[in-house]
Give the backbone structure.
Amino acid sequence: MKKTRLCDLLGIEYPIIQGGMVWIANAELAAAVSNAGGLGLISPNAGMSPDGDQVENLKKQIEVAKSLTSKPFGVNLPIMNNPQIEALVDVCIEAKVKVAVTAAGNPALYTARFKEAGIKILHLVAAVRHAQSAEKRGVDAVIAEGYEAGGHNGLDELTTMTLVPQVADAISIPVVAAGGIADARGIVAALALGAEGVQMGTRFVATLECAAHQNFKDAVIKASDTDTAITGRKIGPTRILKNEIATKLLEMEAAGASAQELQTFIGGGRSRRGQFEGDLVNGEAYCGSIAGMIKEIKSVAEVINDIVKSYDKVVAELK
Amino acid sequence: MKKTRLCDLLGIEYPIIQGGMVWIANAELAAAVSNAGGLGLISPNAGMSPDGDQVENLKKQIEVAKSLTSKPFGVNLPIMNNPQIEALVDVCIEAKVKVAVTAAGNPALYTARFKEAGIKILHLVAAVRHAQSAEKRGVDAVIAEGYEAGGHNGLDELTTMTLVPQVADAISIPVVAAGGIADARGIVAALALGAEGVQMGTRFVATLECAAHQNFKDAVIKASDTDTAITGRKIGPTRILKNEIATKLLEMEAAGASAQELQTFIGGGRSRRGQFEGDLVNGEAYCGSIAGMIKEIKSVAEVINDIVKSYDKVVAELK
């Protein structure tokens, strides 16, 4: 498999990052990915109870990950609507994690602090102007995430196929492609488009090590190509597995419901309930539209080894 | 550039199909694409006046194309809402065109007739179940079109990155990837995902030979990554260049406008006005979200030669 600038930047063998999925990207998952040669990411609230403290939880998760791997791993830090973001940044710096991924917010806020601390910083973007702004603020690489990705999504609805080459043309730091990637074919495609690595989320939900509830893992491997939908365009577009909640949200949106009405209907805690508790009726399960291609729950090592083994074959078939 | 089963099936040198774009995919464009080694497609209403007769127009277009190329070309035949579809099918059969592309309708309707006449038939699909159904009805190949594509779009919003590998896994006939492809990087990506060819529309709008109005061509090369939007989800999702019409439609949709209200607002003839007459204020210009990557109006031969020249380089960089 090709070594890219991302491998050198992060000190990893394969240019594969595991998405730091809220509630479920725990230390065990991150460490397994890093041990297999990729970069694991921890979510600060992974495995936490609803009334838990993200800051204390992150400290523990980092400790566990360090006990499981000597390889680099990172932390996913969505900025927006996160009252504890400052304290979480402090934890990452004190614990000397190797990589921070920021998203949904201004990359100017923490980039300088991370860089001073010797932490590599990647910022999630969903349009060219965001990538240019992130590069200007000094981030080390961007993750360009397309419309097919699970969970929170950009407002501009650019797909991985169109976003990645345009971002790659616009900036000179490495670009990581995210959204719609779950096997070697997707990685080869992403690299052809100009990316130097990929981030995969949904593929890692369906692994033995992920803290996702078994119901969620089972739903991913049973999903068809059309079993996810973007919901909540007015309050922050989010791709989830289709269920009653999704159907109701889409109906409300079609009828012109206001942001307030949608927010009231959703309430709080649904993503934990869906992903971690396995309540796929009243919960929300963030899921990419590539779920239809994922047919088996595997160990993280199997996922990564299968990709590495297939990569050269996919490239050879292009001739 | 790789020879695929699609090349053999259609008798073409490169696995590149030019989208049969309504109003603007004229004989000159199709012939230029076929002469350059791809497969050109004619739209029955290309260059026609608003009160013209599609059937007579298509006859003339086929005649002109035959005078300009001895290579295979095809005709694009959207089925739905086309009262003249039967007569158009007759014209294709009588004129012995080599390829018919059907879309937006049941592939069972005309496949047998085309096959009896020795015409290769490709059907446009936007989800796995449609691809399986088309294969069962006997079509020779499917065109799997993602959410990033310009013009009419599938209801399931699958992107090229997620649609193509899932379709390729589900059927055994060749898959052509469409949506978001405008250079060699996109073609390599599509082939890596399992496609055996690509269809490009927007890239061919910005060519010297296309019948698109100069205003439309200029708008394509000036577009940024975020200058298109999906409009009309309730009446048939359509990706167009953002303009006042698009903004108004999106506002109406967000406010819960009914299908009837949206249809009344749009009225008729807007796509001809935008694309062929160049009225980008009151017209609609169908445009893919890869427009942001297209920076130059070129001849068709240049477009294809540039891709062919770059293909091996893109593949070589994957190692």
Observations:
- The radius of gyration of chain A is 18 Å.
- DSSP finds 14 helices and eleven strands in chain A.
